[in-house]
Design goal:
Length: about 130
């Protein structure tokens, strides 16, 4: 993984958005309330001054935290949990927790594609393979 110091602020903001989406997934499954980063990335939001975004080191620390917790949240999923109504106004393809997981999975893949495009545009090679 790239060091936090090597990430330009703009790419760090994109990474923060990706991390925020992953945290939304984790919180949907666990029923935990939103955190401070979510307000930076609402649908249709505009770019804010760079100093308002989390620092790259903070994003990487949060990424490590989410990476440790997400597999545990996935292991705890049951058909009963996935069929519960989505809570707290969470977006969902069908109004259920499972629908929220589905939507967030699609959302993350979309952003991974954006990051792949940016890597190519910046002259880097493919991430895998």
């Amino acid at each position: 993984m790239t060091s936090a110091a090597a990430l330009p602020r703009e790419l760090a903001a994109l990474a923060g958005m990706f991390n925020a989406g992953t945290r939304i997934f984790e919180k949907t499954v666990q029923g935990i309330p939103d955190e401070k980063w979510f307000q930076l990335f609402p649908r249709g939001s505009r770019r804010v001054p760079a100093e308002q975004y989390p620092r790259p080191a903070e994003i990487l620390d949060a990424w490590k935290d989410v990476s440790a917790k997400l597999p545990l949240a996935l292991d705890r999923m049951t058909p009963e949990l996935l069929s519960k109504p989505a809570s707290g106004g969470a977006r969902s393809v069908d109004g259920t927790v499972g629908g929220t997981v589905s939507l967030l999975s699609f959302h993350e893949v979309y952003h991974i594609g954006q990051m792949g495009y940016l890597r190519k545009w910046l002259g880097y090679g493919q991430v895998v393979g």
